[in-house]
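TODO from last week: model Bacteriophage protein gp37.
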Amino acid sequence: MPFWNPWHGCRKISAGCLHCYVYRMDARFDRDASTVVRTASFDMPVRRDRKGNCKIPAGSTVYTCFSSDFFVPEADRWRPEAWEMMRLRGDLHFLFITKRIDRLGECLPPDWGPRGYPNVTIGCTVENQDRADYRLPIYREAPIRHKIIVCEPLLGPVDLTPWLSADWAEEVVAGGESGTDARICDFDWVLSLREQCRAAGVAFSFRQTGAALFKEGRLYRIPRRLQHEQARKAGIDLP
């Protein structure tokens, strides 16, 4: 499982089915997903070209550690260097998503402050009600400036209303599970999240259908290349 990789500069924030992505990618390259390694591109945010220009240009959003989890314990020894690069590159926006929000306190840098670095968004995954009930009380109170709730892969109906508020959550992202063994995502679960966001005044994005979408009494098998496109065509995002 690569740590702090891939680095990718982009103008638009996006979130994928992280757990599936990790193991699918590792399997493709015959890697052991249980092993955490520091990759060759670890220091990409501070690398410069021959003219002295940063290889990742200012203003980019950097997807951070999207093939792992930034708070995985095996990477504790490297994380201070990663925080330092985020601090040095205040002209970039860093986005990472974690299911280990309960490790936040022991993983933060000394200069994080009461709200965190202004150029860092930390998303928290809640794939079902059990994980929402456990993670969201922690996440809501966490000292993070930019927060997004990631219900992806969405594996069941989720009620966010006990915690959902525009006072702290910037967006809710929903999506189904990808891969050949993907579990079913019911479109009614997605619509329920959308209505919860509408009531709370929180932005909502339906990012991908997943490979198995149940809608209006029918199960649709959707190829990976069409899952984001079909989600966009649903036209249910809320700004």
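Done. The first strand starts at residue 2 and ends at 3.
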